[in-house]
């Protein structure tokens, strides 16, 4: 039996592993694909401290993995097929793995629109995080798709760096909190398009325009889809407390409703989901494991 078992090798899971191993805890991390999670799919990350000119997402992910392994983390590249929170154990292709403490770094996936051009132009104008990639389009025409808090805040961020923002929403008013919505709608750089849906993303080598369902073509250099996230928490549903969207409920100490089980990163209920906050979660959860 290990001291700490971590599911997921995104920035949260890798940081948890680093801190746990450095504290002398025997640590196993299981991951279904590759290190880095969503960060590894970002061409360049410009808001992670210490990298003045930014760092490639894959480069950061590989550096985090190497650092964790140097500290003593054992990384097993097998996907979790079953998670038993009460037993603090995980079944992968090679069998069951158990530990005194279980850290869930399950992550979350941005919801896709599922329209033509979305996947083909991902990372070439189509994105899901303006805070991550928006600075690459400073002062240029961009679009945000969505109507909730995330969409309004993304639009405000982009407007704040000089972009002319088209805010595309399928309804006739924003679903965002009143104060956030008011700020977005009062910003002269943000133009809402009500009762509109994106039918496709147009472009060959890079995004050139949005095509709306009524046939209108909106020229933009970038488009950020902000229609929510889907947490990868299906394997622990019914075992730990979750909110209505499926995010695992935990405070800043990252403790779930199940003793000995922690949640870190994008799968946790939190106000901001970024690489830096994921890393902070990982450090916190590992420190709690060490205290336990």
UniProtKB/TrEMBL annotation:
GO terms for molecular function: oxidoreductase activity, acting on a sulfur group of donors, NAD(P) as acceptor. Residues 2-282 form the FAD/NAD(P)-binding domain. Pfam families: Pyr_redox_2. Keywords: Disulfide bond, FAD, Flavoprotein, Oxidoreductase, Redox-active center. InterPro entries: FAD/NAD-bd_sf (IPR036188), FAD/NAD-binding_dom (IPR023753), Ferredoxin-NADP_redctase_2 (IPR050097), Pyr_nucl-diS_OxRdtase_2_AS (IPR008255). Gene3D superfamilies: FAD/NAD(P)-binding domain. The keyword ATP-binding does not apply. PANTHER family: THIOREDOXIN REDUCTASE 1-RELATED-RELATED. This is FAD-dependent oxidoreductase.
